[in-house]
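Title: [Solved] RQC P-site tRNA stabilizing factor 3D structure

Original question kept below for reference.
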Amino acid sequence: MRIDKYLKVSRLIKRRTMAKEVTSQGRVKVNGQTAKAGTDVKVGDELEIQFGQKHLVLRIDRTEEAAKKEDAATFYTVLKEERVNNE
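Solution (posted by the thread starter after getting help):
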């Protein structure tokens, strides 16, 4: 599954176009490598996402084409979440 679609289906990012923008800015890494919107992800991959002041590291547990809102949280496990000060 493409990383931009995964971010949208898992509801980490609301819209797929926004997921494409975030990846094109180099703010998403898959297994330590900077990802592009078309990068394929699979179960067991580790994602690093930079959301402004928040740095999130998570592991992919499921990949499906669609999900209900209440099931979205089961797509990943948060490994690390930290605040980043850009001062």
